[in-house]
Amino acid sequence: MKQQIYPCLWFNQQAKEAAEFYCVVFGAEITDENHFVSTFEAAGQKFMCLNGGPEFTPNPSISFYVTCESETEVENAWAKLSDGGKALMPLDKYPWSPKYGWIQDKYGVSWQLAFGKMEDVGQKFSPTLMFTGEKAGKAKEAIGYYTSIFKNSSVTGIMKYGAGEGDIEGHVKHAQFSIDGYVMMTMDSSQPHGFGFNEGISLVVECETQEEIDYYWKKMSAVPEAEQCGWLKDKYGISWQIVPAMLQKLINDPEKGQAVVQAFMQMKKFEIDKLLAAAEGN
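The chain above was modelled as a monomer; its predicted structure follows.
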């Protein structure tokens, strides 16, 4: 089954370098690349690395929970990510895993490495949304919001903070859900962090039809000034890219790609008919 939803990581002209780094860390392989993006796949999951420029950098408000099937796998990945990175939670034994650590790598991307069973999660890499600052306390509401928009969605479980457990009672300590079969996690944190959701990490939704693009755009776009080249921001400040599934193929065409790029640079929401017209020189 084709993966409709996948993350995009923003870099300052380091997309290929970062993709190659993650290939070494996770045993992945680069599957596509052009001037704008380098795409890699790890454990059958797609990641896009974007040459976005200096405007944004990833931060831990969106991290990736990585289910490792041995303690050695955790330790090896931790060692590689530690090169130029910094530990956010030290590699140790925790109530939820006998071997777990949270680390921010040298590019600013954060990874939660955990020894566990793949069948308990369903996929190796799970984007984890941390609601901080004025968004803290919105995690449960957001789960309902996303699962109402995407088909084939479900909620696996929601664990809340109790009294005296380190955060506001009733806030989400950890939750797991899926949208269109794509597993995600979320949590609240009312602690002072100094970061929140930004374009540094976005989620891409590939659409086969204009009707799909229109549907997601209408349902999720909440910040008009953020609408550009298929990008939107939802009401929680999370960035999404709503793109035609054919876009990468059109861009990679040596004869038509430049015209397609020129066309979509003028768009807010993607319009498939105009992209195809540009590809044909119209």
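The helical segments are 15-26, 71-81, 118-121, 139-149, 210-220, 247-252, 257-264, 272-279.
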